[in-house]
Design a protein that fits this description.
alpha/beta, five-stranded parallel β-sheet, 8 helices, 56% helix, globular, binds adenosine-5'-diphosphate, binds shikimate-3-phosphate, binds magnesium ion, aromatic amino acid biosynthesis, metal-binding, Shikimate/glucono_kinase
Length: 172
Amino acid sequence: MKNNLVFIGMPGVGKSTVGVVVAKQLGMHFIDTDLLIQEQEKRLLREIIVDEGEEGFLKIENQVNRNVNVENAVISPGGSVVYCDEAMKHFREIGTIVYLKASYQVIKKRIQNPKKRGVLLKEGQSFRDLYNERIRLFEKYADITVCEDGCRIEETIENVLSAVESMRNASE
Ligand SMILES: Nc1ncnc2c1ncn2[C@@H]1O[C@H](COP(=O)(O)OP(=O)(O)O)[C@@H](O)[C@H]1O
Ligand SMILES: O=C(O)C1=C[C@@H](OP(=O)(O)O)[C@@H](O)[C@H](O)C1
Ligand SMILES: [Mg+2]
């Protein structure tokens, strides 16, 4: 059944922190699939990235996310999941994709050091280039887009909840 919510968006946009509160407010389960990756691999994300490289990490990320089998859950994957075709196909089948959107300036302020934070940057790619590359994918997959520029986290959560409510009312 297609009754899950799946958050996508840049690292630092709030998929994990907003996701858990939204799940609580809506009486849904919550899964941060980065934690599933760490549990399966018995390594931290940053260790997997160092050991396996970007391609290796994406393979694991795709495999873990495409196998998520839940109902009535908020799912918060890592920001790079939009490169994982099978995982995204699966998420489209089991849920509504919610894109948490923020300007480059807002994200850059939160992520001071992308490499240290474990962001999957290709060799020679700037964080700005990565942002531009990813927004196209976020826009392609989004069923709902919630923009958080100028919002406090509480307002982001409220805006997500009303967008989800409107969508549910419209499909009744
Ligand atoms: N308006 C906002 N919306 C969402 N998160 C916000 C906002 N303002 C500040 N934050 C902060 O940004 C951080 C987002 O981190 P996190 O949830 O780990 O993001 P992600 O899982 O998308 O990488 C949190 O520390 C959160 O408190
Ligand atoms: O966007 C990325 O390249 C990544 C984001 C991280 O998750 P968050 O988006 O939850 O920070 C984590 O999956 C990994 O470090 C790679
Ligand atoms: Mg997260």
